[in-house]
Amino acid sequence: MKRRPMRRWFARVWLLYAVLMFIAVGMIIITFVAAGSGNTGGQPLPLVPRLWLVAALILVILLVMQALLVAMTARFLHRSILMPLDAIGKASRQIGQGNLSFLLPSSSTMEMAEVITAFNAMGKALREALARQEKLEEERRFFISAVVHDLRTPLFSLRGYLEGIEAGVADTPEMIAHYIRVCCEKANDLEHLITDLFTYTRLELLELQPQREHVDMDELLQKVVEDMRPIAESSALTLTARCEGSPGLDTMVVDRRLITRALENLLDNAIRYTPRYGSIAFNWTWSEEHLLLTVADTGPGIAPQDLPHVFKPLHRGEASRNRQTGGAGLGLSIAQQIFQAHGGELSVTNRASGGAMFLGVLPISRT
């Protein structure tokens, strides 16, 4: 239905009524003039009765037209204005009661149709905002439950081994040394988890801003590889590094500590999921505008249903639910946030030859 402004609709209809009224008044005036002026014999003109008849007919038509106009105007106001306004009032009360499932009827009047469209758009925006809030609340509950689980597991193990030492279960120096070593490992797990939680929370709340400085990226990347190589070798893994391209000047303005943390998280993740005697390739390529970094492993890869959720906090695929390889589930989230804080991006895919490959992009900034 084509919508027209109310003022145009009323103006046209009532203009027609005014024109007809003007004609009727003119006909009456002409009739009176003609009736008052006779011929030389004082007799009224023979045209006068006809003029009276025409004037009376026009008056009847005007009365009928006025009645129709009033009825049509009342119907128009009821359907195009009063009913939508009543619907808007009901919808407003529903919103006040927390019910956002409403859809206002359309109107043939342009002004009212614009109000209805805006109100429906507001309702849709409110429903979407409520859905986002419910999703965030669900993620918050999951986050808290996952944190509690990840804290409880090493704490229970730590308490169990300590109680074993206290109860004399470890009755030889070798067993005591083993129990103490396990307790130290669990304490390190707790420290690592708490550090990750603290870092993730600060990055999420934008409290941890990159402290940028001029950094020799080739030197930093080589140092990260050398620091992580003993950890890889302890798991019988081969860690290789290769640089491609030459920017002429390999200095960038980044946060040395955060970038190091992100790359260590990526390599640590690859070490956790790569079977013994596998390999991990860490490569970086320089271009005119970006530094491209890849971490590829020969592990089992990532299940297709887990790929969209890899960077979600505390997400671990079903194959990694054990504490030996599961980690805290925050390392990749932290790495992605660090890349994004530097204006870059971090993504993941599965290689055709097997294994996962993380792709990081950092814009080259030297000022």
Describe this structure in words.
Residues 79-131 form the HAMP domain. It catalyses: ATP + protein L-histidine = ADP + protein N-phospho-L-histidine. Residues 146-366 form the Histidine kinase domain. The protein is α+β, with helices and mostly antiparallel strands. Helices cover 60% and strands 12% of the residues. It folds into 3 domains: 6-108; 142-204, Helix Hairpins, CATH 1.10.287; 213-363, Histidine kinase-like ATPase, C-terminal domain (Heat Shock Protein 90, 2-Layer Sandwich). It is built from 8 helices and 7 strands. The chain has a 5-stranded mixed sheet. It has a two-stranded antiparallel sheet with strand order 1-3. Helix 3 runs antiparallel to helix 4, helix 4 packs parallel to helix 8 (331-341) and helix 5 packs parallel to helix 6 (256-273). The longest helix is centred in the middle third of the chain and has 58 residues, at 110-167. The two termini are 59 Å apart.
Summarize the structure.
It is an enzyme of class 2 (transferase). This protein is of the alpha+beta class and 367 residues long. The chain is 60% helix and 12% strand.
Sequence-ordered SSE layout with sheet pairings:
Layout lengths: L5 H31 L11 H49 L13 H58 L5 H32 L8 E4 H18 L3 E7 L6 E4 L1 H18 L5 E8 L3 E8 L25 H4 L4 H11 L3 E6 L5 E8 L4
Parallel strand pairs: 2-4
Antiparallel strand pairs: 1-3, 4-5, 5-7, 6-7
Helix pairs in contact: 1-2, 3-4, 4-8, 5-6, 6-8
